[in-house]
What does this fold into?
Amino acid sequence: MSTTLAKPAEVNRTWYIIDAAGQPLGRVAAKAAHILRGKHKPTFTPNVDCGDFVIVINCDKAVLTGKKLDQKKYYWHTGWIGGLKSISYKDMMADQADRAMMIAVNGMLPSNTLGRNQIKRLKAYKGAEHKHEAQKPVAYTL
It folds into this structure.
């Protein structure tokens, strides 16, 4: 039995649009990461970047279940001594909801050059408007 492996030159990329309004943030991020990796295709190959483009709209209307909105924090380090910074998800969802979606999806992608190239194909927007109508995105239902 032979296994079909995708070649980078043979990858056809389509554009998908996901509406995050009323959906849990992690569930939307998991679906976006699934599409970005290309795991929804029958020609998925782990070592080839065969994923598609994803547009996530209404990131500010995504919900966090339980007490995560009040208790969860995002931490990062600036690289300087004593440079540990943090922001609560309540503030992040109010001000930078698209960044919260990017962080969630980036955590679900591999930590190598494939993952760094895949996250570039994610476009996240706070509202319902986006600038990718020319690509004719297909609506993806969760």
Observations:
- The chain has a mean pLDDT of 95.
- Residues 13-139 form a domain with the Ribosomal Protein L13p; Chain: A; fold (CATH 3.90.1180.10).
- The first strand starts at residue 15 and ends at 19.
